[in-house]
Design a protein that fits this description.
Structural class: alpha+beta
Largest sheet: 9 strands, antiparallel
Strand content: 25-35%
Distance between the termini: 31 Å
Number of helices: 9
Shape: globular
Number of strands: 16
Order of helices and strands: EEEHHHHHEEHEEEEEEEEHHEEHE
């Protein structure tokens, strides 16, 4: 989440009549410092945008580090009175699970490091080895626990950041809401994280595009693949959007929790498909940090996740590694 948006701008809400029984609704807006796009087919002809926006406001107030009054911010500030809610608990438990599965490559306690590098809400600091070493003393998910509705820290300097996967979880929250409303066909996209169910108006499985992972902070890149989604989610993590160049060296925002520095490997992007978006979003970050060979082994051990890994060879050319399940879902790779 780049910043807190406590009110939402309604960009548009359109309804296309297909028959007297079925309508397609498309709603768009802003949340979590980014945009969302949702299309759903509804036999009751409802505009669900106000309820969805209320959900997203509540979600933001729980887990946004850009909101100084959010639950996670109060946890980071060692507020003794703060109790965590269900959104926070789901994030914490999933983070602990992925932290263990990725051998620490994914770790939400890198928040102080993210701030120091200028990738968080804090001001960028001058990076020196002594500075990184001092911060690493209180980075590690083993230093923090969830007990009931309270967070217990072994070091008060430990701070959490769920931004690496919170957008993915917010997609799941909206999808769950649509399911409860009886919506059987929809696609939800928030900040590039996507979940789709059913088919579009033409009876076709929902399809999303994957971008070329070349460096580009300002605009979308050409698509390199189209992927079909049905009752599953997809998340892509790459180093081509959030980075800075200093003294001719590129520093991306994916930090290695073990070194305190941006991860250095030949992986350019990871696109993961799984049953829910919190799983794809969190693991995409961990996979990108661990590098190609460890990522391949990780995927061998986690068959519930399908993946497309894009990496560069010694000559700078793009190469692709696809799990069998992912390969079946790709309709085109250029």
């Amino acid at each position: 989440m780049k910043k807190v948006i406590t009110t939402f701008l309604l960009l548009f809400c359109t309804f296309k009549v297909v028959s007297q029984q079925l309508e397609s609704a498309t709603i768009e807006g802003e949340t979590q410092g980014t945009t969302y796009h949702i299309t759903y087919l509804d036999t009751k002809h409802r505009n669900l945008q106000p309820e969805i926006e209320k959900l997203l406001v509540d979600f933001d107030f729980s887990v946004s580090t850009y909101n100084p009054y959010s639950i996670i911010s109060r946890v980071n500030q060692n507020d003794k009175d703060v109790e965590v809610d269900d959104y926070f608990k789901v994030c914490f438990k999933k983070a602990k699970e992925v932290w263990k599965n990725t051998d620490g490559a994914f770790d939400p306690t890198v928040f102080p490091l993210s701030n120091a590098w200028g990738f968080g809400p804090g001001k960028k600091e001058t990076i020196e080895k002594a500075k990184i070493d001092s911060i690493l003393q209180f980075v590690g998910f083993q230093l923090i626990e969830l007990k009931g509705n309270k967070i217990v820290k072994k070091d008060p300097r430990v701070a959490l950041d769920f931004n690496a996967f919170a957008q993915g979880y917010s997609v799941d929250v909206v999808a769950s809401f649509l399911n409860k409303k009886g919506i059987k066909s929809y696609i939800v996209e928030i900040g590039g994280e996507v979940y789709a169910k059913g088919t579009d108006l033409n009876g076709k499985i929902w399809e999303v595009g994957l971008e070329n992972p070349k460096d580009n902070k300002e605009a979308k890149n050409p698509l390199i693949a189209n992927v079909q989604l049905n009752n599953c989610a997809i998340s892509t993590s790459g180093n081509n959007r959030r980075y800075f160049i200093e003294n001719g060296v590129k520093y991306a925002h994916h930090l290695d929790p073990k070194t305190g520095y941006p991860a250095k490997n030949n992986l350019l992007s990871t696109s993961l498909i799984a049953k829910d978006c919190i799983t794809t979003d969190a693991n995409a970050t961990g996979v990108l940090v661990m590098g190609l060979e460890k990522a391949k082994q990780f995927l061998q051990n986690h068959k519930e996740i399908e993946a497309l890994l894009i990496y560069s060879d010694e000559k700078g050319n793009f190469n692709y590694y696809k799990t069998p399940g992912f390969a079946k879902l790709i309709s085109e790779v250029k």
